[in-house]
Amino acid sequence: MEFLVKEMEHTMVIKTPNDLFVRLLYEINSAEKQITRALPKLARAADDSNLADAFKEHLEETRGQVERIEQAADTIPDIRVKRVKSYAMESLIEEGQELIEAVEKGPLLDAALIGAAQKVEHFEIAAYGTLCSLAEQLGYTEARDILAETLKEEKSADDKLTKLAKKDVNKKAG
Fold this sequence. Notes:
Blueprint: E1 3-7, E2 10-14, H1 17-45, H2 49-74, H3 87-102, H4 107-138, H5 141-173
Antiparallel strand pairs: 1-2
């Protein structure tokens, strides 16, 4: 079975695990770049200073993750990272923006922003987990190690958001 993926102006045919790895690498590259544009908005919308700081810190991490995607690609012959729009990430970010517009700034919005940010983190955890698994299967050990570092950061960001929600933010919201 062939999977067809819409790529900018043409269709990318996915026939092999390598094709899938390349497609997912392109997609996560787009996703991370979208996140770098969204995180400052989340930080400005947050009322809780710890939450705003967490978004700002993750922005810096995300910039490093974009660089790591390039580094991972550079370890594999004949791969150059292209931009294939991540429609899933676009939708998740749009959902966060809708919350910012629909909920008054304060504790309830903070709780909503944590939920929206965790959806993004879970998407990224799934994407990087899949990339690491495929890289392992394909023998891309160096790329796997680079991507595993980002996977660890994404899990840590998710844990930090959970702790913020449980410790303080959700209690204030309700």
